[in-house]
Automatic annotation (TrEMBL):
EC number(s) per entry: 1.1.1.100
GO molecular function: 3-oxoacyl-[acyl-carrier-protein] reductase (NADPH) activity
Gene3D superfamilies: NAD(P)-binding Rossmann-like Domain
Official protein name in the record: 3-oxoacyl-[acyl-carrier protein] reductase
InterPro entries assigned: NAD(P)-bd_dom_sf (IPR036291), Sc_DH/Rdtase_CS (IPR020904), SDR_fam (IPR002347)
Top-level EC class: oxidoreductase
Family membership: Belongs to the short-chain dehydrogenases/reductases (SDR) family.
Pfam name, any one: adh_short_C2
Keywords: Oxidoreductase
SUPFAM superfamilies: NAD(P)-binding Rossmann-fold domains
């Protein structure tokens, strides 16, 4: 995939949560190729390290944080260290979240998924520049357009879009907010899915007849964050190969 020209200013910074794998890593590498300095956040130290090494190999700049986004104190400390390392942070990709198959208590899951995005966003705001700042959350077609077996996943992903609409309506003086909504996306957590019986059934119904790649979601995320999207605020953007229009 060639890199698009989104109008980013080289040297501006972005924080990406869950950047040690999948969609977050793809966004981190595309951001580095766009000239952004990248705050690479993840629970998994090996994932942080691998993403940073890949950014360095591209000639980019990165700062890593091993942080659990559901721990508000850890988030505030990580944001402060990231800003000290990279300067003002223009962009935020709230991407980390547990897999939809995790067996979690409903209340705990909503706190982890939605509460973490609220605390990372509030921790980021003091370090965002006065103009041009933007945030994108990785929502999902699940919850917003289709229901999943796990109650907490649908509820949390729909809740995230409610939070985005609040931010878009009431905080646009500080930053723009949008949501990207992956469909079935080929990341480690869905390894083997395409060849499973359910995977084959779903792929049959996706008009583009393939899973999304992490780079497909990353490209949409960076577009929504970028100056090219400066009048886009509060949208929910499915990146699902047209799957949900066939439902
Ligand atoms: N893969 C899909 O089909 C799909 C579809 C819709 C939405 N999504 C969403 O995309 C996002 C990224 O998923 P992915 O498919 O790239 O998965 P992934 O498992 O490849 O990557 C997720 C990363 O997030 C990290 N992470 C998880 N919880 C964390 C926490 N509390 N604090 C910090 N880091 C944490 C993990 O360590 C991992 O490195 C998730 O929010 C997921 O719900 C994925």
């Amino acid at each position: 995939m060639g890199d698009a020209h989104y109008g980013f200013t080289a040297g501006d910074s972005i924080v990406i949560t869950g950047a040690g794998s999948g969609i977050g890593r793809a966004t981190a590498l595309q951001a580095a190729r766009q000239g952004l300095s990248v705050g690479v956040w993840d629970l998994n130290p090996a994932g942080v390290d691998e993403t940073i090494q890949a950014i360095i190999a591209l000639g980019g700049t990165a700062h890593g944080e091993v942080a659990d986004v559901s721990d508000a104190a850890a988030v505030h400390a990580a944001m402060e260290r990231t800003a000290r390392a990279l300067g003002p942070i223009s962009f935020l990709h709230n991407n980390a979240g547990p897999p939809s198959t995790a067996q979690l208590d409903f209340g705990d899951a909503v706190r982890i998924c939605v509460g973490s995005v609220q605390s990372v966003t509030e921790a980021w705001v003091p370090y965002a520049p006065q103009s041009g700042a933007a945030m994108v959350v990785t929502a999902s077609v699940a919850g917003n357009l289709v229901g999943t077996a796990n109650a907490w996943y649908s509820a949390s992903k729909a809740g995230l879009m409610g939070y985005v609409r609040h931010l878009a309506a009431h905080r646009a003086g500080e930053f723009r907010s949008n949501g990207v909504a992956p469909g079935m996306t080929n990341t480690p957590r869905l390894a083997g899915f395409a060849t499973s019986e359910m995977g084959e059934r779903i792929l049959e119904r996706i008009p583009l007849h393939r899973m999304g790649e992490a780079d497909d979601i990353a490209a949409a995320t960076l577009f929504l964050l970028s100056p090219a999207a400066s009048y886009i605020n509060g949208v929910f953007l499915p990146v699902d190969g047209g799957w949900t229009v066939t439902q």
